[in-house]
Structure formats: structure tokens, C-alpha cells
Amino acid sequence: MQSTANTEHDAWWSAGETPRKPKIAIIGLGYVGLPLALSFVEGGAEVVGLDVDTRKVDALLEGRSYLGTLDDAPVQAAMATGRLRPTSSAAAVAGADAFILCVPTPLTRQREPDMRFIHAAIRSISRYVGAGALVCLESTTYPGTTREVVAELIAQRTGLRPGADFCVAFSPEREDPGNAHFGTRTIPKLVGGMTARCTRRALSLYRVGIDNVVPVSSPEIAEMAKIFENVFRMVNIGLVNELKVACQRFSEGGVDIDVHEVIDAAATKPFGYMRFFPGPGLGGHCIPIDPYYLSWRAREFDAKTRLLEIAGEINAEMPRYVVERLIRGLSRQQKALYGSHLLVVGVAYKDDIDDVRESPALKIIRLLREGGAEVHYHDPHVEALSVADQAVPALADLNADSLADFDAVLLTARHRRVDYEPVLEHAPLIIDTRNIVGRDAVDPERLVKA
């Protein structure tokens, strides 16, 4: 497989015309669509950003970012070019050379693929997809979606033939919010088209905004590659979470083993090992959800995904395990979960961001409330929080006076903006799920690793 970095643009969108940059319609301006739009604008393209959320559109028109990991400056720079047009009107995408779908792909309550956002996006744009257009799906989904859902639905609504009259491709998003080393432009981009021509056109398009575009032989290869990336992480996190539980059981039995020291020791091997860290469970838009797209589709072909499912079960149990460790810690101090006052520090699903989607902290808060505890939270990135449609009170500052009201503090994210020293000094009990507290930093009777 060869990279296509630094190759000449094949501007199929202006064939026979005066050379021009493409007009791109991006459907969905969330954590994937907005950074992608900015990258294309930076490359000189004209971008129409379509989103049903008028608050997002209004924010962009005012030069404001609504993503916690994206500053206002890139938005203002893009708007100043006149080549970024945010809108909630589908008619604005008329005349686009390419349509890129960046919409959510959640699971139903039965853990089956929820395609309603993809269907809605196709309904909104299909009348504007003309002969020669390119349609790309970026939303993570099961292998076969691009060909069997996107291409077929557009064909049914337009009468055009996919792969012949219009091109279709899959190019999975690989966003990593908060990553200071890789951004939309510098993360290598996979592209797989329904035909070789579709792939070439998608490659040419993405080269406008992405430094390194990598072709694969089909949409299904690209779809499975994205799923595999997330399955790989899910399984390894499940493995290290299981190791964490085992090490804690060893320690309780008199054989003291610190899982984090084990991880550091193993990492001295310069080959055949990759470092993963345990935590309170999985969170975010990808890892807790995407692997189940694979297991759902695999059942259709009588293929087993046992390792994936076991890892999912291990990770799903981590919030409950954290609560169990808390209960044991409270018991050592002759306290019960029922009626206790608890503080959860860090409710975003990962460090230094404001995204709480699928955050294990939310599951922990729900379990604590079900057990009769009163729960507050502290997170400088999250201004307001609701769990099960009930608001969670926020604690503005961590200090001796504010911490005096709590029986225990649970550390569920490691934010650089949080000063943990007051917790170490004043919390009567600390439940550390992120290895924030050194084993010798506080009295062992006040510290529970979870």
C-alpha cells in the first residue's frame, strides 16, 4: 500500500473548465465535520457546512467554535476567506462537486446499528446529487454500509447508477480530540471507492485538505480497517483492565503487585509490546460503540467475535467495579454508600477535553445515586452535567472548606487544569481510577486504587 502524499492534484471537478478548487458539501458539523471543513478551506476549497443544529451555524457565523478542543481563531480565519458557508438549509449544497457525510452512527438499545442519521442525511442531499458527483461517508459503521446503504439509497432517490453516473467512497474519520501531535490535516486518511475511478476521485478530493491520503481497494476494506483500529484498542484496554483487577486481588491476598509498575516494566521491551492503561471504563464516540457494529454484522455471516464481546463485558463492568472498591473503602471508615456525600473529579471521557459522551464517570454517578449517595462533580471543562435527566451539582473549587463536606473523592479523569493537591491533603478517602495519586503520597488508609 502506497501513500499518495505530495502528489499532483487531479482536479476532476473542473475538467474542461477553468481550473478551480472543488465545492464541497459537508453534512454534519460536529467533532468530525467542522475540523474537516476547516482543513478543506485551508486547502483552498469552497465548503458548505450543513447542520440541522442552528446553534452551531449561528456560532460559526459569529466566528465562534463550539468544540472544546478547537479555538475560535481557526474558525474566524476560515470565515474570513468567504469560502466557508455554514447553513441549516439543504438547498445550499446544490451544485456541490462532492458530498461528505459526517453524521453520528450510534447504537440502539439492543446494541444494533442506528442508521437514522445516515438516512436523514441522504434524504436531505439526494436531490442535489447530480451526474459526476462524489459522495463520501466518514461515519464509522459496519462493513457494507457504503455500498449497500449509501449508494443504494441515493440510486433509488435519483435514478443514477453508483460507480457509473456518480462516485461513492468511504473514508473513515480518525479524529482524536485533544491530541496535540496529530490533527485533521496530518492524520493519514484511508480512502476506498466502489470502483477504481471512485477511489481516484476521492483521493484527488481529500488531497486538497489532507497531507497523506492512502488508497485501499474497496469501501469494505476501509470500513473494516476503521472498526479494527477501535477493536484493537477495546480488546487491549479490556486486557489491561482485567490485569488491574487481578493485581489488586493479588495485593489483597498478600502478594503486592502494582499494575502500573507492571505496565512500565513491560514497556522497557523495545519490540512486541504496546502500552495500554487501565481505567474506570470506556468512553467517547468510538471505542464503546464501534466494535458492536462488527459483531452485529458478523452474525449475519455466522462469524464469531468472542474476544471482542468478552473485552466489551470486562470494560462495561469497570464502573461497577469502581463503585465496589468505593464501598469497601467506605466500610474501612465505618461508613456506608447510602447517605454518603461523594465528589467525582473529572467527568469527561478522556483527559483535557469537555466531551462526556459514553463517559464511564456518568455510569459511576448513576450507580452511586442508585445506591443512595449524594453526588457532586468537579470538572473545569464541563460547565453543566445531567445524568438520567437529573442535574448533577457542580463544585466550583477544590479547597479545604469545599472538600470538608465529602466522605470520598473519586478521580475519574486526569485534567491538567485540575489541582489535585487539595484532594490529597483534605479528602478523607480517595478512589483513584487513573493512577493520579502516588502510592506513597497519602496515608494508605485514605487511598483506594480502582
From TrEMBL:
| Domain UDP-glucose/GDP-mannose dehydrogenase C-terminal, chain residue ranges per copy | 343-439
Alphabetic keyword roster:
NAD, Oxidoreductase
Write down the EC number. 1.1.1.136
- Identify the Gene3D superfamilies for this entry: NAD(P)-binding Rossmann-like Domain
* InterPro entries the UniProt entry points to: 6-PGluconate_DH-like_C_sf, NAD(P)-bd_dom_sf, UDP-Glc/GDP-Man, UDP-Glc/GDP-Man_DH_C, UDP-Glc/GDP-Man_DH_C_sf, UDP-Glc/GDP-Man_DH_dimer, UDP-Glc/GDP-Man_DH_N, UDP_ManNAc/GlcNAc_DH
Keyword hit for NAD: yes
GO molecular function terms attached to this record: NAD binding; oxidoreductase activity, acting on the CH-CH group of donors, NAD or NADP as acceptor; UDP-N-acetylglucosamine 6-dehydrogenase activity
Family affiliation: Belongs to the UDP-glucose/GDP-mannose dehydrogenase family.
What protein name does the entry list? UDP-N-acetyl-D-glucosamine 6-dehydrogenase
Where does this protein come from, organism-wise?
A: Enhygromyxa salina
